[in-house]
Amino acid sequence: DRNTFHRFDKFNAKYNPIGESILREIFIKTDNRISGKYFAHIIKEVMSDLEESKYQNAELRLSIYGRSRDEWDKLARWAVNHRVHSNNVRWLVQVPRLFDVYRTKKQLANFQEMLENIFLPLYEATIHPAQHPELHLFLEHVDGFDSVDDESKPEHHIFNLDSPLPGNWVEEDNPPYSYYLYYMYANMTVLNHLRRKRGFHTFVLRPHCGEAGPIHHLVSGFMVSENISHGLLLRKVSGVGGVHGGWGCGYCPPLTVLSPCQAPVLQYLYYLAQIGIAMSPLSNNSLFLSYHRNPLPEYLSRGLMVSLSTDDPLQFHFTKEPLMEEYSIATQVWKLSSCDMCELARNSVLMSGFSHKVTQLQSHRGP
């Protein structure tokens, strides 16, 4: 029923076929007793369809949770053993913000342990690729990282200089969104310097950001992200400034709560920096915002770097061409011109993590 889309936990539960979590483990997990055989088969069908269509490429998500040190090796072994590879597909690794769940279950001692489980295997594979051949090979097809979870969850802590370091974060409360993003970014920066020195490609941070929750998530996203997904809340900071004098005017609260006189600045910063915003109007239509209120056409007309993206196509799309559904419906509803569609398509290519050779070729083809 419609309540499915009003609570994140109910929506998430829909990925348990006929309400059984064990079926989720069997069919759409990479680490199970059949070594992710069924999931690999499904992914290879998707890849085959993409290769057949010739001009569609995709960046698919796989999860690393940070609960144990061997997650990366298991994921890489699944990808290599099942030959889950295509020239039309790149991977983004999403990290769910679930430290509080793992801490409550005593699976982690502190937040530092979660960070080490996520990043130490990558350092090891970069320094000694011969000792981690499968992971080294898999990382050649990984573009970057995504940070995912329900952004509307209440945050009981503000990230500032008084915040505990990851090794001292032992409470069962979840760290705030900005805490997750900062420490992911800091670790990725060091890792990227190392990989660059070794002659390997680097990673980017492309989190879910501004889909729901506080507007200051978009400030964090602006400071540390290459691109973001959704960005719906930027529409709430798009008006003309108020009567005050902007940042530091003396009337406004701190940056964690944006005031009206700060409002136009944030969207303008996203425009100036051309930070990519991958938007999914069909998904948003069910979960957060009706299609006609979606700000994508306004963002596009103002010159922000927006693109159309699928999100949870198993839930929200009806055909084997979910991206074409997004383009078709957007074009009809918003009466987009062919020029608009070409700009959206070109933006998606430039925002992607495909090689320069591929993006140069694709960005001249249009949708």
UniProtKB/TrEMBL annotation:
Gene Ontology CC terms: cytosol
Keyword Metal-binding on entry: yes
Cofactor annotation: Zn(2+)
Enzyme Commission code: 3.5.4.6
A molecular-function term among this protein's GO annotations: AMP deaminase activity
InterPro entries in the cross-refs: A/AMP_deam_AS (IPR006650), AMPD (IPR006329), Metal_Hydrolase (IPR032466)
Keywords: Hydrolase, Metal-binding, Nucleotide metabolism, Zinc
Pfam families registered for this protein in UniProt: AMP_deaminase
Pathway(s) annotated for this protein in UniProt: Purine metabolism; IMP biosynthesis via salvage pathway; IMP from AMP: step 1/1
GO biological process: AMP metabolic process; IMP salvage
Record's protein name: AMP deaminase
Species in which this protein is naturally found: Geococcyx californianus
